Automatic annotation (TrEMBL):
Residues 55-108 are annotated as: Disordered. Pfam families: HLH (PF00010). It comes from Allacma fusca. The lineage of its organism: Eukaryota, Metazoa, Ecdysozoa, Arthropoda, Hexapoda. This is BHLH domain-containing protein. Residues 102-154 form the BHLH domain. Keywords: Developmental protein, Differentiation, DNA-binding, Nucleus, Transcription, Transcription regulation. Residues 93-107 have a biased composition (Basic residues).
């Protein structure tokens, strides 16, 4: 792939003998986000909220307590700049060890939901973009660059 121009502007897509070259758009205004970003935020929030609700229900059904007990509160504290780093008692260390797998499991579940939402959004974006050949597999950065170019092209067509 051939790149030219600065990296701060969206890029205009120009196919050239199987290669794609990019050049900055002259009329791009970075202070105004594209409307598609603003349009889908509410839908994305609703999906994420429903998935997080399902995750919390799952955590409540599969754990003895809530998602964070008093014993686990130390896992979310900032720790500061080294103050309060006194030796933990044997009982506190034992509680910390017991809380860690539960915390790891909850974190892994949240991360799985986040990555799934991220990949779903990329798949939806990819389905809206024209490519040759149509079944060509694109990386995430290629999807984003192609989306920028396609949106710029559509704006150009609308201006005519």
């Amino acid at each position: 792939m051939k790149m030219s121009g600065t990296g701060t502007h969206p890029l205009e897509h120009q196919p050239l003998n199987g290669f794609v070259s990019y050049k900055p758009l002259s009329n791009y205004d970075p202070s105004h986000p594209p409307s598609f970003v603003l349009h889908n935020q509410e839908e994305i929030r609703k999906k994420l909220k429903s998935r997080m609700t399902a995750l919390r229900q799952f955590e409540n059904e599969n754990s003895s307590g809530g998602s964070c007990s008093a014993d686990e509160s130390h896992l979310f504290s900032s720790g500061g700049n080294g103050e309060g780093k006194e030796q933990l008692s044997r009982e506190e260390r034992r509680r910390r060890r017991r809380a860690t797998p539960k915390y790891r499991s909850a974190h892994a579940s949240r991360e799985r939901v986040r990555v799934e939402a991220f990949n779903t959004a990329f798949a939806e974006l990819r389905s809206l973009l024209p490519t040759l050949p149509p079944d060509k597999r694109l990386s995430k950065i290629e999807i984003l660059r192609l989306a920028i170019c396609y949106i710029a092209y559509l704006n150009h067509v609308l201006e005519r």
